[in-house]
């Protein structure tokens, strides 16, 4: 078997490419606002070392959290590593920082677009390429999002589709 360092890291390259698309979309929204009916369901890993959120939110969502950028959001700032945004949680505005590497799903149900990032042990630097699939996004509460069926109606493309099993 060949040395893994001799392999082309297609999974990582696809991840970086899709993060580039998400970055461009969020930058356009930051610059011009949400056009038409566009809105985003973004699930991210709250355990990521660069994810920033209030302690009470981290306690409530110890592994992952779904946020919605739709009706009310403020201060959407995008950079190469991630984005920051203020969202309203039951009349409590909170600032979040989400690194692109922490994103698990990105869905725009208005145009049935979505990506699910499969987390593998290789991406975490711990082992073989095929790890368990990413968990399904949690159901949002009334304070966070409309009914979850809107996100489930979109076609979500898994990056795992493009990986070769060994």
Description:
By secondary structure, this protein is of the alpha+beta class. The protein has three helices and eight strands, in the order H-E-H-E-E-E-E-E-E-H-E. The protein has a five-stranded mixed beta sheet with strand order 2-1-6-7-8, with no helix packed on it. A three-stranded antiparallel beta sheet has the order 3-4-5. A hairpin with a 3-residue loop joins strand 3 and strand 4 (82-88). It is globular. The N and C termini lie close together (10 Å).
Question: What's the topology here?
Answer:
Elements: H1 10-32, E1 40-45, H2 55-60, E2 64-69, E3 73-78, E4 82-88, E5 93-99, E6 103-108, E7 113-116, H3 149-152, E8 155-158
Key features?
166 residues; alpha+beta; five-stranded mixed beta sheet; three-stranded antiparallel beta sheet; 8 strands; globular; disordered C terminus
């Amino acid at each position: 078997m060949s040395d893994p360092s001799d392999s082309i890291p297609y999974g990582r390259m696809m991840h970086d490419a899709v993060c580039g698309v998400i970055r461009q979309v969020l930058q356009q929204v930051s610059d011009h606002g949400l056009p038409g009916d566009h809105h985003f369901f973004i699930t991210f890993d709250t355990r990521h070392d660069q994810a920033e959120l209030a302690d009470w939110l981290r306690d409530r969502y110890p592994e992952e959290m779904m946020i919605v950028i739709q009706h009310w959001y403020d201060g959407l700032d995008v950079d190469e590593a991630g984005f920051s945004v203020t969202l309203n949680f039951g009349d409590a505005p909170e600032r979040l920082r989400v690194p692109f590497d922490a994103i698990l799903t990105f869905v725009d149900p208005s145009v049935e677009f979505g990506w699910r990032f499969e987390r593998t042990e290789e991406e975490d630097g711990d082992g073989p390429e095929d790890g368990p699939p990413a968990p399904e996004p949690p159901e949002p509460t009334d304070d966070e999002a409309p009914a979850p069926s809107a996100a489930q109606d979109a076609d979500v493309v898994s990056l795992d589709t493009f990986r070769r099993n060994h």
